[in-house]
Design goal:
Length: 170
């Protein structure tokens, strides 16, 4: 990616309300993140631009020092109840995100989710929304079936081709 393209992306992030933008091209990934700890005295927001080559072997994330966004603390996932049976994913269809963005289960915070685990779905039915660059993209079901698992939490970032739902086909 050329320096001018990166500068244009930084400008887009600075002038918008988005907090983070990630772009992958030709084996390179660039993530632009606004500094969430900025001082509110009309100083420009700081933006970090770590570039990563996705062809390298994954490594443990480096500890950041100095000002900049700090990774959010992660909570340990809740253990399923002992009466709950594990989901057999071998015969389930995956619904994957076609874009990078933010996952939303409902059309607005006050609305009910589009689907719940156990709901029967049909082709063309909206399952969720993935917001990218302030555009709300409805993700529709491609086959009939029953929602067996929802793999994303509401308002969480989602990567391209990340599995969002597991559906048992009918």
């Amino acid at each position: 990616m050329k320096t001018q393209e990166i500068r244009e992306l930084v400008k887009v992030v600075e002038q918008s309300e988005i907090d983070e933008l990630e772009v992958s091209r030709w084996g390179h990934r660039i993530r632009i993140t606004k500094n969430k700890n900025h001082v509110a005295n009309n100083q420009p927001q700081q933006i970090t631009i770590p570039a990563q080559n996705t062809q390298q072997t994954p490594q443990a994330p480096a500890q950041q020092s100095g000002p900049g966004p700090q990774p959010a603390e992660t909570k340990e996932p809740e253990q399923p109840a002992e009466t709950e049976e594990p989901v057999d994913t071998s015969d389930l269809e995956e619904v994957k995100s076609p874009i990078v963005g933010t996952f939303y289960r409902s059309p607005s915070p006050e609305s009910d989710p589009y689907v719940e685990v156990g709901d029967t779905v049909k082709p063309g039915q909206t399952l969720c929304i993935v917001e990218a660059m302030k555009i709300l993209n409805e993700i529709e079901c491609e086959a009939s079936g029953v929602i067996k698992e929802i793999l994303m939490e509401d308002a969480q970032p989602v990567e391209y081709n990340q599995t969002l739902f597991l559906i048992e086909p009918k």
